[in-house]
Amino acid sequence: MLRITFSEQDIIDLRYERYHHPHPRVQMKMEALLLKSRGLPHHEIAACVGVSGPTLRTYFRTYLAGGIAALREVHFYQPTSELESHRTTLEAHFTANPPANATQAAAMIEELTGIKRSPTQIRIFMKKLGLKRLKTYAIPAKYNQEQQETFKKKTLSHD
Question: Which residue from 48, 46, 47 is spatially nearest to 57, judged by alpha carbons?
Answer without folding.
Answer: 46
